[in-house]
TrEMBL record:
Superkingdom classification of source: Bacteria
Protein name: MFS transporter
InterPro entries listed in its UniProt record: MFS, MFS_dom, MFS_trans_sf
Residue stretches spanning the membrane: 12-34, 54-72, 84-103, 109-130, 142-164, 170-190, 202-223, 229-246, 267-290, 302-320, 332-351, 357-384, 396-418, 424-445
Sequence ranges assigned to domain Major facilitator superfamily (MFS) profile in this UniProt record: 14-450
Protein source organism: Promicromonospora alba
Coiled-coil parts of chain: none
Keywords, ordered alphabetically: Membrane, Transmembrane, Transmembrane helix, Transport
Membrane topology: Multi-pass membrane protein
Length: 450
């Protein structure tokens, strides 16, 4: 089936709907930042259980993004996207009604599966709406700004909602947003082409098992449960070996070789992973530092994140214009440099007990770095994808980001601990700075101008 070309006047509204749907998946990861302390107090969550409540979403999301990308190409981006949005809205209702932390963690994992359907599908839908590369780059900038606005609003809205309605409120607000998404994307212009590429479910499940067990090992190691960590690590290695074996025999491998071999895709995946490692790890450890060490309440914690996240709502539009004019390489390098600089300053500020204003300034630098890097990386990946593989390319990119985000929460959370101590928080953020600096050096050499 060939997509109907959308009239120019309707494209902004359709793009808005796609962006809100994608923003839902981002909002659910950042809005949890303001609810962490309330969860530990009301449900008795320790460090490892809190990490799993946060990480369950990104573990499942990261693992199933690989297959979700293939599902987009096979069944059509429109079908996969809308199914994911419906499931996300219904699961949000279940999350608000969860009776305990175990149930909430399970719901969060299922929400990750629904989000996996939305992410690569949204990228593929944009390629259908905007076929001209320059217009597409600007559209990606607007899409990133709208969805980035959700990320920016997450801690602030979460803080206000938690202050009024407790942690349950952060799930209720997803329902009207899901309904708005479905209304705005009910367009024939989004019903595009499909392929007959099959999906290897055995490989997919083994990938999910390997990721989940590996994250469990990291969380257990950080909690001092070395026996548990060792068992999970061995199981993760076995699951990885099974995945490799299944991939070699598969007629439709999860890791599509054609996409992985395409141009700048490999370096872009690594850079995207570094960005999300730093961002998600920082979003996990800073709320605990603000609330436990600086004694800020949930609302003031949300406000403290505004300098970091405010740029997500408007700077991607500028990044999209820069990419359209100069290509993606320059903003990617600028973004990674700002991330490394901001994380270094943030680590120094928390370690020395500097005034809160300095902490907020350095966190703002980190946030600006994200807004330069991510839209440019998305443009790089979608532009390099082979014909008919936009969904798979989007799946690879977002899977790498979510896996790195999960590792960031596990590793940096284990270093910082649930008490939010200044020294431990500084050490965790310094690790993020080192990762971004190393990937910046690699990207300078490997990402080619387009």
């Amino acid at each position: 089936m060939t997509a109907t070309l959308a009239p120019p006047k309707t494209r902004p509204l359709i793009l808005l709907g796609i962006s809100i749907g994608y923003g839902l998946t981002i909002l659910d990861s950042t809005i949890m930042a303001a609810a962490e302390a309330d969860l530990t107090d009301s449900l008795g969550a320790g460090t490892s259980s809190l990490q799993w409540t946060v990480a369950a979403y990104t573990v499942v999301l990261g693992a199933f993004l690989l297959t979700a990308g293939a599902a987009v190409d096979r069944f059509g981006a429109h079908r996969v996207f809308r199914a994911g949005v419906v499931a996300f809205g219904l699961l949000s209702l279940a999350g608000a009604l969860a009776p305990n932390l175990a149930a909430l963690t399970g719901v969060r994992a299922l929400m990750g599966l629904a989000a996996a359907a939305c992410m690569p599908a949204s990228m593929s839908l944009i390629t259908q709406l905007y076929t001209d590369p320059r217009r597409r780059a600007r559209a990606i900038g607007a899409w990133a700004a709208i969805s980035g606005g959700a990320m920016a609003a997450g801690p602030l809205v979460g803080g206000a909602v938690v202050a009024v309605a407790g942690w349950q409120g952060i799930f209720w607000i997803n329902v009207p947003l899901a309904a708005a998404t479905l209304a705005l994307t009910a367009s024939p212009a989004l019903r595009g082409s499909r392929t007959d590429r099959p999906i290897d479910w055995a490989s997919q499940l083994s990938a999910c098992a390997a990721l989940g067990l590996g994250i469990d090992a990291l969380i257990a190691l950080g909690a001092g449960a070395t026996g548990h960590a060792a068992v999970s690590a061995v199981a993760a290695v076995l699951a990885t070996a099974l995945f490799v074996r299944l991939e070699r025999r598969s007629k439709s491998p999860v890791l599509n070789p054609a996409v992985l071999r395409a141009g700048n895709v490999g370096p872009a995946l690594l850079a995207g992973g570094a960005v999300n490692f730093a961002l998600s790890g920082t979003l996990f450890v800073l709320p605990l530092y603000f609330q436990r060490t600086l004694d800020l309440d949930a609302l003031r914690t949300g406000l403290a994140f505004v300098p970091m996240t405010a740029a997500f709502g408007f700077l991607p539009i500028l990044t999209g214009k820069i990419v359209a004019r100069t290509g993606p390489r320059r903003p990617i390098l600028i973004g990674l440099a700002l991330l490394a600089t901001g994380a270094t300053g943030l680590a120094a500020a928390t370690a020395t007990g500097a005034p809160l204003a300095l902490t907020l300034v350095t966190s703002a630098c980190l946030g600006v770095g994200v807004t330069f890097a991510i839209p440019a990386l998305i443009a790089l990946v979608t532009g390099a994808a082979p014909a008919g593989a936009a969904g798979a390319a989007g799946g690879f990119f977002n899977a790498t980001r979510m896996i790195a985000a999960t590792v960031g929460v596990a590793v940096m959370g284990s270093i910082a601990g649930v008490d939010g101590g200044a020294g431990a928080t500084a050490t965790a953020v310094a690790l993020a700075a080192a990762v971004c600096a190393a990937v910046l050096a690699y990207s300078v050499a490997r990402i080619r101008a387009t």
